[in-house]
Design a protein that fits this description.
With 395 residues, the chain is of the alpha+beta class. The protein is built from six helices and eleven strands.
């Protein structure tokens, strides 16, 4: 009898801790492929930094049509590499997802085998528990065999507890792997959206370059006139918003709904900032400082009021620069530039979260204006009429 118990004990331990060789090999292969993809991304980013340095050098030189075209060429090349890097990241994420799936299958298999073998051990223990010591003694030939069987039964109990603990650990690991898998699936979807945005960006950059060549006809004089007009337009818009804000704030006391909170939310779901506040890499910095953050997002994304406010002004400029501005409490106001659609009107109260318009920015589309190379939201925050960094007010 003790030989039977010894066999079951050995068999159970073999199955409980048997490695899944074929799946482990597959996981190792995937790990190697993942590392290759990540190395490729790192190499592409190094190449991108070269183009970024070229852009900065050109921005430091005197503004000219040739310089602007050179900046655009470098930007297009950089965006192309960015697209390739994102494609590699997507492939790496797919491989990581597959690796997690294999690990989950392995964990499930191991748990199933543990349950089967635990059942066998429990059955053996149950059968031994139903035999009294006299019965066990009579079934064995010697006193030594009797004590050996008692010892094996004790070992079964100990190893049963160990195996149960291991089973619980496996289940915890399984739940952790499933959570990791869900996170990877979210990353994959996010990267797909980001890839499409970057493809839209490069289309915008190419369109902008083509339009610049058509508009200027390779003339430095026309280029200078074009950009000086863009500067005047920007200054006029800023002055108009400041003047209107002063007037509206004087009327706020008569408004039926008072503004009490200026706790901001993001106006769109995207968090990918392509140009920062007063960004040193802003391509038109020689004309004026960038008074906002540019948030990459697909053309036509819904814009939501980040806090309760009144519509300070809307400007539908057709194919020119269209914007929406809101006034909030605590001396704050916000501006949304390059909008393709406007859903509100002046003096209208808008509660936090209400959709006020749709994003734009693709060159040659309604509301985009002159100085834009791709779809995004230009988002300004002003304190007492002066532009401040929006990131200081966003959660």
């Amino acid at each position: 009898m003790h030989k039977k118990i010894n066999f079951l004990l050995t068999l159970s331990l073999v199955f409980l801790f048997l490695p899944f060789v074929s799946q482990a090999e597959n996981a190792d292969d995937l790990t190697s492929q993942i590392e290759q993809k990540k190395s490729a991304v790192d190499e592409l980013k190094k190449q991108m930094s070269t183009y970024q340095e070229n852009i900065r050098k050109k921005q430091a030189e005197a503004a000219s049509l040739n310089n602007q075209l050179s900046i655009l060429d470098n930007q297009i090349a950089k965006t192309n590499l960015d697209i390739k890097a994102t494609e590699q990241e997507i492939t790496a994420t797919k491989l990581e997802t597959r690796k997690l799936e294999l690990q989950i299958l392995s964990a499930n298999d191991k748990i199933s085998n543990q349950k089967i073998n635990l059942g066998a051990v429990l059955q053996e223990i149950h059968e031994n528990d139903n035999k009294n010591e006299l019965h066990v003694f009579l079934l064995n030939n010697t006193i030594s065999d009797f004590y050996n069987q008692i010892e094996y039964t004790s070992d079964l109990q100990i190893n049963l507890q160990t195996a149960l603990g291991d089973l619980k650990d496996q289940k915890k690991q399984l739940l952790s792997k499933k959570a990791d898998l869900e996170q990877k699936e979210k990353e994959y979807l996010s990267l797909k959206d980001e890839l499409q945005q970057k493809k839209d960006e490069i289309n915008g950059e190419v369109s902008y370059k083509d339009a610049l060549l058509v508009t200027t006809k390779q003339s430095e004089k026309k280029f200078s006139e074009l950009y000086q007009q863009a500067k005047r337009d920007q200054e006029a818009v800023s002055a108009q918003i400041t003047q209107m804000e002063q007037k509206l704030r004087n009327k706020l006391k008569t408004k039926p709904q008072q503004l009490t909170s200026s706790d901001f939310d993001w106006p769109i779901s995207s968090r990918r900032i392509t140009t920062n506040f007063h960004d040193q890499d802003y391509p038109f910095r020689y004309l004026f400082e960038h008074p906002a953050i540019d948030i990459a997002t697909p053309q036509g994304t819904a814009i939501k009021a980040p806090a309760d406010g009144y519509v300070l002004n809307v400007r539908d400029a057709g194919m020119g620069y269209s914007y929406i501005s809101l006034i909030h409490s605590d001396g704050l106001s916000t501006v949304y530039g390059h909008v393709s659609k406007i859903y509100v009107q002046n003096d209208q109260f808008v509660p936090k979260g209400e959709v006020i318009g749709a994003t734009g920015g693709m060159p040659g589309t309604p509301g985009a204006g002159r100085l834009t190379t791709g779809p995004h939201l230009h988002f300004e925050v002003r304190l007492n009429g002066i532009p401040v960094n929006p990131l200081n007010y966003l959660p």
